[in-house]
From TrEMBL:
It comes from Moraxella cuniculi. This is Tryptophan synthase alpha chain. One of its GO terms (molecular function) is tryptophan synthase activity. Belongs to the TrpA family. The keyword Glycoprotein does not apply. It catalyses: (1S,2R)-1-C-(indol-3-yl)glycerol 3-phosphate + L-serine = D-glyceraldehyde 3-phosphate + L-tryptophan + H2O.
């Protein structure tokens, strides 16, 4: 059983929902990331989603796209991001870390080399937005079959996913399914809770894999509404936006972190009230 699977098993026993915050590795300065990961755990994170900086993040809205730009400007590479997970693991061996990125850097590194690097660092799951499930080949099974550090392959489902593609995602996915709550990119609005409830119910009829919902969650109310129909909620843009104008100014960074942690407290309290 992977760390992610263990977390969901424990949450199910406790009748609780997972809170999964997203931050971009190296944003706005590399030295902030590991400490922020620890603080997210202290404020209720069950799993951390760590973005891998990329110059063309097609699934992401302007907030996270700009975060990637800031991280790249700060010289944060894919390899640097994975090293941050290794640093985090020195003092936290229980909180799962999911890395989210795009295929281009991984193609350059090589799939097996990237998987080895992630396993050595203590990564628990990989989400490559532009890897179609029907083209994943043996990669998902290679991840879960590792004896040193078994990892999960996470895939996305959305309101426009066909039944055929959904079946492929369920076949190849493990850990949890990431359901995109609306049409559009990260940070979009126009959340339709009833539509999400219907889609998640359909997915759950076809698999026992936990389903977590992301995109469009902005506050405790939306987190509670979606947490009531899913196994967890994923929040990114609402946290990342706080680093838009900090630069390297220590006071601005401290204030931004305080806002992120206050939002985490709001979200944790909301979903614990379901």
């Amino acid at each position: 059983m992977t760390r992610i699977e263990s977390v969901f098993a424990k949450l199910k026993q406790q009748n609780k929902k997972a809170l999964i915050p997203y931050i971009m590795a190296g944003d706005p300065v590399p030295q902030l990331t590991v400490e922020l990961m620890h603080q997210l755990v202290a404020h209720g994170a069950d799993i951390i989603e760590l973005g891998l900086p990329f110059s063309d993040p097609m699934a992401d809205g302007s907030v996270i796209a700009h975060a990637a730009e800031r991280a790249l400007a700060a010289k944060t590479s894919t390899r640097d991001a994975i090293k941050m997970v290794a640093q985090f693991r020195k003092t936290n061996t229980h909180t799962p870390v999911l890395v989210m990125g795009y295929l281009n850097p991984i193609e350059i590194i090589g799939y097996d080399a990237f998987a080895d690097m992630c396993a050595d660092a203590g990564v628990d799951a990989i989400l490559m937005v532009d890897l179609p499930p029907h083209e994943a080949g043996e990669f998902p099974r290679k991840l879960t079959a590792r004896t040193d550090n078994p990892m999960n392959q996470i895939f996305l489902l959305s309101p426009t996913t066909t039944a055929e593609r959904r079946a492929k995602v369920i076949e190849n996915c493990s850990g949890f399914i990431y359901y995109v709550s609306l049409k559009g990119v990260t940070g979009s609005s126009a959340l339709d809770v009833d539509a999400v409830r219907e889609q998640v119910a359909t997915i759950k009829q076809e698999t026992s894999i936990p389903v977590c919902v992301g995109f469009g969650i902005r506050d405790g109310d939306s987190a509670k509404a979606l947490g009531a129909v899913a196994d967890g909620v994923i929040v990114g843009s609402e946290l990342v936006k706080n680093f838009a104008d900090t630069g390297e100014d220590p006071e601005k960074l401290q204030l931004a972190v305080a806002k992120v942690l206050a939002k985490m407290d709001e979200l944790r309290t909301a979903i614990d009230g379901i």
